[in-house]
Design brief:
nine-stranded mixed sheet
């Protein structure tokens, strides 16, 4: 039966006080946290660093950048354009001749339509030199995962996770290979769509967790040793590294409802950012070996009507004096993409597998299995779909 709006309204009205109490408590806590953001300025820098020095353990975040340009925890961008044409003119000044590169992936999971587990993983990448000639490269790579790849010997094995792991591996390997091919290229920026801190893997078994860490360590080592800037772009982040730092330094009440992007958003205009912090999140970073202290983060306002994006950047980029330049390249990509980095968006469009691709894959698979006389059975529903299309 369809949903009954009257029933939903009735339940919401009966629980209205719960929502009001939550909003009031969160609002008050948010004001408390925002009040200490005033210390993240040139005048308060000495106090912040003195308090931080007294805490030798993980603070959640630790200040890296001087605060001489910051007010209330925000470094203003101070540029406003009157038209999109003006903003694109600024982009041309910053990005012409700068090559940006991103990778994304897609997959077809094993399903009940086949008698044995088989999966398809595809990654796509986009390289844009930002030249007046308009040249670029789009390409894909794919892999077919067999029952052995999927480790599907037992009914309890997480085969979908194996697919996700293979996709992640292919994406990070392609980024790593690209960095190695473009070693020492200071006119190049590589984007990872997602986080360099694999907190999501903490819920997995130790072997799977280590797998993700090793993929990211390879990428971080490549960026550092070959001196190619890398930015991990998280469009919607609920990280609490900065809030953890402020709570620890200034004895604020603990709150699971407040996150970093929400905390700094009110004071930000488009293009503004926070200072760069070292990520000191407890948990999986302890497995990052020599890179456990080498990941920085900042929040960049990329949309006027939403929370800022979180950017994670290897600290060597800051130490090499490249941070401001790299952040301008990110701003340029966001302008071209009308609120989201164009290079990541295009890589996603290149990689995505549509419904027609799924049917084509099964049709090829069926023809190949018949040719090889393999005992591969399709469900009646799948056979009907393949024949019709």
């Amino acid at each position: 039966m369809p949903l009954r709006p009257s029933h939903i309204h009735e339940i919401l009205n009966s629980k209205r006080d719960d929502f009001i109490a939550f909003n009031q408590e969160t609002w008050q806590q948010l004001q408390d946290y925002r009040s200490v953001l005033e210390n993240l300025s040139g005048e308060g820098e000495a106090d912040v660093r003195e308090r931080s020095a007294k805490h030798l353990g993980n603070l959640g975040a630790r200040l890296l950048e001087p605060l001489d340009r910051a007010q209330h925890g925000i470094i203003p961008f101070n540029l406003v354009w009157q038209s999109r044409e003006q903003s694109l003119g600024w982009v041309r000044q910053r990005l012409t001749g700068i090559t940006t590169f991103a990778v994304d992936g897609s997959q077809i999971y094993p399903g009940k339509d086949l008698s044995i587990p088989i999966a398809l993983v595809q990654i796509g990448w986009f390289e844009n030199p930002h030249l007046p000639t308009g040249e670029y490269e789009k390409e894909i790579a794919l892999d077919v995962m067999t029952p052995t790849d999927l480790q599907a010997g037992n009914s309890g094995d997480p085969v979908d996770r194996r697919v996700n792991m293979r996709r992640f591996q292919m994406e990070t390997e392609r980024l790593t290979d690209y960095i190695k091919t473009n070693a020492r290229a200071k006119d190049c920026l590589v984007f990872l769509d997602g986080s360099l801190v694999a907190t999501f893997a903490e819920a997995f078994d130790p072997k799977s967790r280590q797998f993700y860490v090793e993929c990211l360590l390879d990428l971080l080592h490549a960026s550092q040793s070959h001196q190619v800037p890398l930015v991990a772009y998280i469009d919607t982040s609920y990280a609490q590294d900065l809030t953890t730092m402020l709570r620890t330094l200034y004895d604020l009440p603990e709150s699971q409802a407040i996150h970093d992007a929400q905390l700094v958003n009110k004071a930000m205009e488009w293009g503004d950012r926070t200072p760069l912090f070292q990520c000191q999140r407890s948990g999986i970073l302890a497995d990052y070996e020599d890179q456990s202290t080498q990941i920085g983060f900042t929040y960049l306002k990329t949309n006027r009507d939403s929370y800022p994006a979180r950017l994670e950047i290897p600290i060597w980029v800051y130490e090499a004096g490249l941070l401001d330049r790299v952040l301008d390249w990110v701003r340029g990509e966001v302008i071209i993409g009308s609120g989201y980095p164009y290079v990541i968006e295009t890589a996603d469009q290149t990689a995505v597998l549509q419904a027609d691709d799924r049917q084509a894959f099964f049709r090829i698979l069926q023809d190949w299995a018949d040719q090889e006389e393999l005992n591969l059975r399709f469900s009646r529903k799948m056979v009907s779909k393949v024949r019709r299309r």
